[in-house]
Amino acid sequence: MKIFKRNQYHHQRKYGRNKKISSYHRGGGHPRIYRKIQPIGLPMNITGQVKTIEYDPNRSAQIAGILYENGSKKYQISPIGLKLGTKLIAGSNAPLKIGNTLPLKNIPLGTNIYNIEPLPGNGGKFVRAAGTTALVIAKFESWVTIRLPSGEIRLFSNNCWATIGQVSNVNHFNRSLKKAGYSRWLGIRPRVRGSAKNPVDHPHGGGEGRAPIGRCHPLTPWGKPTLGKRTRRPRKYSNTFIIRRNGS
Asked: Going residue by residue through the chain (248 aa), what tens digit of pLDDT does each one get?
């Protein structure tokens, strides 16, 4: 929409390249205009009205165009149930209404939230994909316990901000691409099996006819273990915040 044109700009995609091909099967696709999403909690204590709910090619969720009382225009990830003309506000004393943004210390237990900050002032990073939502399950001193969509139970500072509700476009992951050309529009190129390549191109390649990979475990094109190999750093800073990983 024209009134939000200032929040839209051209963004050159990398297509999996970083001086070399670091991610195969990327390239082409329909050109996209990038929509800039506002940082969480901004602007503070200023009421805004939802003017548009739009499709965004850069993410799975829909986005809402909001016109604030001070004249600023921002995009925000749209929750389920948000309607045109709805008044939204971000603030410590904002009402508990879908689309409003508050610090976790002011959100009661059992509330569904999304777009959560990992650290105060970092901006929303968690729970932003279509149809996702997290649940506030406990509070203790300056920490809030939240169950994420993956089943992981994790601690967040009570000064982190989050938005009330569930991310829109729940049926995004049920869509059928219908034909090969749909993937090409999305910038996804055909995938080639490693065993169908030459040995110079992939560790699984080579051999006469349909040969097995000839190794104990599958490898990436760069010879690193894959399919089951854990890639998370063993001493990551956030390990102390995780109570239970991925429902296990």
From this structure: 667 777 888 888 888 888 888 889 999 999 999 999 988 777 889 999 999 999 999 999 999 999 999 989 999 999 999 999 999 999 999 999 999 999 999 999 999 999 999 999 999 999 999 999 999 999 999 999 999 999 999 999 999 999 999 999 999 999 999 999 999 999 999 999 999 999 999 999 999 989 999 899 999 999 999 998 888 899 998 999 999 988 55
Give me the domains of the chain, ranges plus CATH numbers: 5-169 (2.30.30.30), 192-242 (4.10.950.10)
> For 181, phi and psi rounded to 5 degrees?
-65, -30
Global pTM reads 0.88
